[in-house]
Queue: 2 jobs
Job 1
Amino acid sequence: MITAERKPLAEIIDSIDGCRRIVLAGCNECVTVCAAGGRKEVAMLASALQMDFMKRGKTLEIHEMTLERQCDPEYVEQLAPFIDQVDAVVSMACGCGVQEVVRRFKSKRVYPAVNTKFMGASERPGVWAERCHGCGNCLLGLTGGICPIARCSKRLMNGPCGGSSKGHCEISNDVDCVWQLIWDRMKELGIEARYEDVIMAKDWSTERGGGPRKIVREDLQ
Amino acid sequence: MENFEPVIVAFCCHYCAYTAADMAGSMRLSYPANVKIVRVPCSGKVDSIHMMKALEKGADGVLVAGCLEGDCHFKSGNTKAAKRVTFVKKLLEEVGIESQRLAMVTMSAGMGTRFAQIAGEFTQAIRKLGPNPVCAGRGTCATAKVA
């Protein structure tokens, strides 16, 4: 999932301070799962904003809406009946959702309420960790299914480096050395001989090196 | 301010704090009528939004009262509630509302005296803090009708 964290309240308030009416739009997908911008978080933020405005003797009308997916135009369309009645949209979706709202409603101010973080997985309740970098050329098949791009601090293609100590990365004891994990996994699978194979320098043009990326499927157009 | 009577919403677990409040009554112990009890099946059932909404709608203080540590009828509802209270307290600080307006307390079903004592102390603490700044700004405070 795409993970996110709510922005500091002061930053959100600062962006909408001149507004009287807003739509607070959450998303039912990734940000719901990582508890950053789903229906519940929309309700919490709406309540916090209400309290802040009331405390200062101001009023703010908040229309709470949580769309099925804010990164899909058909769901963003659901904002249309309300858009003319509000001064701004505050989106609790990831950056993709925010930009879809911007693309559809060109004359409306749209503010993000979360900081989009990374593509990650839920390690345990309340903990999400980075798993994929979206490099555009997956090499999990070579590394025992564990990604050195997303999970090695140096993105080493052939590790570990000298900073690996007792299974941890030198940057922090809280960070596993991914090359230790890869080695352990290969050993468990009985394919440790593959560890000797040198992975060639990566072509980063499939990542951001090639500019903004796009997938086009003509059969679906 | 001298005549300020706070409204306290107390979310009380059916298995402990609610029974403790009942026991306080049976024991003829008096506690401030400011405390309005909402019975819940477990303190773990009290969501962050319930605490926020109580304060947003004008309560001056909110208590979440659960079982003693390790004694939750549903194993861990009280520890979950305590974590949520900590989370909401941080959010309240961000909003600029005193986090002391929200508190997690624990007791057993037999602690009628403790319930009455907590109710009294918390009401006094909120009385010192003054009205909820939210309703002060709005100009429509929900004042308790205390005889």
Job 2
Amino acid sequence: MARQMTGAKMVVQALKDQGVDTVFGYPGGAVLPIYDEIFQQNDIRHILVRHEQGAVHAAEGYARSTGKPGVVLVTSGPGATNAVTGMADALLDSIPLVVLTGQVPTFMIGSDAFQEADTVGITRPCTKHNWLVRDTDALSGVLHEAFHVATAGRPGPVLIDIPKDVQFATGSYAPPVKGGPKRYQPQVKGDIETITELVEALETAKKPILYTGGGVINSGDAASQLLRELVDATNTPITSTLMGLGAYPGSGKNWLGMLGMHGLYEANMAMHDCDLMICIGARFDDRITGRIDAFSPHSRKAHIDIDPSSINKVVHTDIPIVGDVAHVLEDLLKIWKARGRKTDREALDRWWKQIDEWRAVNCLTYKTSDQVIKPQYALQRLEELTRGHDRYITTEVGQHQMWAAQFLTFDEPKRWMTSGGLGTMGYGFPASIGVQMAHRDSLVINVAGEASWLMNMQEMGTAVQFRLPVKQFILNNERLGMVRQWQELLHGERYSHSWSEALPDFVKLAEAFGAKGILCTDPKDLDDAIMEMIEYDGPVIFDCLVEKHENCFPMIPSGEPHNKMLLGEVSTKDAIKEGGAVLV
Amino acid sequence: MSALQIKKGSTKHSAYNLRPTFSDVIETHTLAVLVDNEAGVLARVIGLFSGRGYNIESLTVAEVDHTGHLSRITIVTRGTPQVIEQIKAQLGRIVPVHRVHDLTVEGPSVERELALLKVTGAGDKRVEALRLADIFRANVVDSTLDSFVFEITGAPEKIDAFADLMRPLGLLEMARTGVAALSRGATT
């Protein structure tokens, strides 16, 4: 029975019917009717951010730490354009978001009205799908379809642009239909014949490796469980992309660490030398592959992905399987068990012996100091002192992000939120707010660099207003560390604009917002300072002054394959050749 | 790169996939894309091609099922086999896209295009233009004392050939519809 209500009421009703409990947003002229409805109910919490970009990243943090879609509500024009970066970020990292934007009334669209922008036009390439709703009767259908599209198949951001007159007008509301609309139903079951082919390959592989990604986490907790079962049962080494950390426990015995440009030596060497690569929910990103024509030259490659366009996009796949990770892994395990749980144990022992030799290189070694805090040391202490906590980590983008991925351990999925594909500086702080909203009693830490952090520092107001005890762990080197590193390696140590003068006093900044600030400059004080941060019940800015010129290693120089890694300060001169210099 | 290994009796690969995926050979393919006829759907398709750097040689779009609100977009594109496969997979991801047919590999198909050509001239040239139009089965749809507008239908190559002949005879302007294509036989 279709109920009659205004478009604005439909929005709130649809959010309730979709199980939404939190919305991140910022009001404005074109969404006032929806905000009026939000004011008159108590089921949905609205978190007022300080900038629309912050709303989208917060919703991303919420989504990634819960597995549910994040919801954003912003106004037309600048509200929508400010949300663009967040949507592009969510698209590249496959994060489900439903973004609602107000629009000028339908009769004014196209007249260059106040705060009018072609929102569906601008956001078409940075959403999975978007809608402009011109008719209140169509609104509830679109709202429900939006949640389905955002979460079904490969997740991603969607946007609904709702003109103000559509919000005011009355129409009929239809509740959600089970299973979602017919027209978008991605295939979740993999082809059994191909899965069997993969099992055969696994049974005879002498040097197999699992290369997993964010798709395992997106597939749900069952996928992580099945992955662990597969690894333990077959004794296959496993590495993961930045996005996939936590799907297999970082403390697990088969874990090789992250792979890729700043991945671990053992992970990259094993990828290069393997004879069977099983890529699960990852996409052969350029940060992962390095030089394509020398990428893992002697391996057969299997690729499990729910998105058919990921397969054969970058690297030729011998065993392509389109399907949801959990569904495919379930079938794979079933078939492998039914065929007698075979692996080539002798060969695997040799393979592990080789891997242990690579592990012995100890690629994360760095020069310690008792004078100055090394960023790696700061993260090791943070790891040590927070290990027992119910902990969630977000990061900004740059050196600190890579060190966090190298030095922190993630034993569960959905505990690690970072901007992988788009590499958005300014992601981590608002994301930590979204995570904390979803997990009020957990310890949420944003590992940041001072430059990234400043990009969305206005969200301190949000953290304080909503009493969100997010910890901002800033590794402050007064540099754009990763840019500086590349300028050192690639541009003759000409450090063009890669440092900021006039940095704020972060302690005073925290206090100005009504939060707590902690400054730490001496390695001896670090443990106490970190404990003080953890124990403080409220938002903290932790200004950790670290070594200014530390470089992030290991590193695959651009244009080089996995087995040409740089392991430390030595031999970095001319490491990047002309062909690699054009790459980013 | 070697070709995909295909097992006997397997149903999961089309014959198309027998070609090595990462070959350098540039191929021309005609794709038929069935979409919901809704606002912005053409922009999504075109945006995909421009955003990812794919070629469009020809593009035709019109509603083909009024009650079902379905439009058919026919695209002629060029690329390596890997690029063509990417284009098809990327098109398939667009929410309002129902089906993507690669008419070039799914068996024999017919392709037709319509063109209008304005030819001006007098005397022998005018007579010759009319004679050639007759040979090509082009119709005169407008005529003045010193001009014709010809309507011609056919495969793109036929239209190219006719246009080449008209050029020295006073071809002033031409409009082409782009390719419409259907598979031959009883199936869709």
